[in-house]
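Summary for the funding panel

The consortium committed to producing paired sequence-structure records for every protein in the target list. Below we show the first two records in order, beginning with the earlier of the two.
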Amino acid sequence: MNSPAPGTKQAVDWLDQPIACAGCPDDVKPEGRCELMKACVRDRSVQRIAQFFSWNPAVANDYLKHPYFEVRACAARHADVFHLRTLVDDPDETVRWAAVMRLPRSFLLRLIHDPHREVRIRVASRLSEQDLGVMIDDPDYYVRLMVAKHLPEHKLPLMIADEDPEVRRTVARRIPREWLGRMLLDSDPVVRMEVVRRLPDSALLSLVRDADWRIRYEVAARGNREILQLLVDDPDSEVRRHARERLDESGPVHMIDFMGRNGNGHES
């Protein structure tokens, strides 16, 4: 292998020192296994390190203790699974994140309290349903969102009171129907809308006085005559119009653009 031609950018390692093929170990120098500025385990470029292991997956185990975290992370994608166990306690989150992708599920439980959210997010995406419950109270909302997406439905009532509305919205989409009534009093109208969309028409009467016009509009779109009569004098003009149109059977229901209006029915 030759050094870069004059005028080209010099290859450097993770310590910002120039590198050349002459200093490479004998086990990676054979023709076709590496190429300076393209596939090199000594380069600081993640792309070049990754390309090196793509060409040389069999040597990945030998680099799991390399001082440069990017080398360890790239090696983790190709190393023998049994060797990945040592990376559970790696000091760098990038390496632990890469290991989680391939670790046996029995080892993932050791990382449910990892200090880095990206590692825990990846753990939550791979844990089995029966083990996900241990992450319901994770401090990061996105970890809990992943839990809400994959937790068995019968355990979702445990997340009804989650502090994040996006998590509760996901819960509302999946929770067994018999629990929907518990979420009708949610403080966030977007969460309540998810609940309303799953409620049977017979349960809409209690929502004709909901504080958010979007909820009342949905009720007007599906409610029976008794409900519509309660909405013909609604504070919001669109809700009134919709209720009256349906009562009078004067024409087709027209969809409105919810964008640009706030929850009280006023223009933004």
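The next record, for a separate protein in the list, is shown here:
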Amino acid sequence: MELFSLKGKVAIVTGACGLIGKHHCQALAEAGAAVVVTDVSEKAVKSFMKELGKNHLGLDMDVTDTQSVKKNRDLILKKFGHIDILVNNAAINDMFENPSLAAEQSMFENYPLEMWQKSLDVNVTGVFLCSQILGAPMAERGKGSIINVASTYGIVAPDQSIYIDEKGRQTFYKSASYPVTKGAIINFTRFLASYWGHRGVRVNTLSPGGVENSQQDFFIKNYSRKTLLGRMATPTDYKGALIFLASDASSYMTGANLVVDGGWTAI
């Protein structure tokens, strides 16, 4: 079991205060790592740090802002002296304020350019900047693990039918921006694994499936029907996969995409 131990390791999680991000942090802490909780919301970071406990660090960080990431890199290195693990978890998943207009606004024909651009900025540029700025100290030190969080929709196209309710109404369309950005992350992983492999930095993708989180019943049923396990994920279903990728248990694994989706993409 020592292969899975993260004792003495420093792990950074971006977008750490989201549903899955919190569980990423908890998993890393449980495995023994000192966790650097980062999120764009300072209030959310402070609140979550009360749950996570001592020996960890909470920082507000905008992954799209070079100076914000550099400032936090310096703070992390000053406190801990090194960086061992980076989990690029921060991402935007489209939300529409008015549910009654969501179907119309999310249609490809109507999808706003500003929403497309914002997704690219956070989901792709944010991963690029954090990997460049926070990953470089790993390369200089000659070891480290970067985990880029993608999605099943980075592998296959969205199934728009799962958003059709019991009355046959299309309640929402999954936009082009999410699968495009998540697909880009999978290939960025391959690029970075190739680029830094000789420097001892492993880079892998974790592609999760959908997490049940108080969605409407029809959606949960539609989604679950498409998985081989017959259910959506729980927020804790990715903890084991994350620790595997972060630890020496995956020491000969790089450039790979670990798909944890209940069998969604298997058929």
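Regarding this second record: The first helix runs from residue 19 to 30. The radius of gyration is 18 Å.
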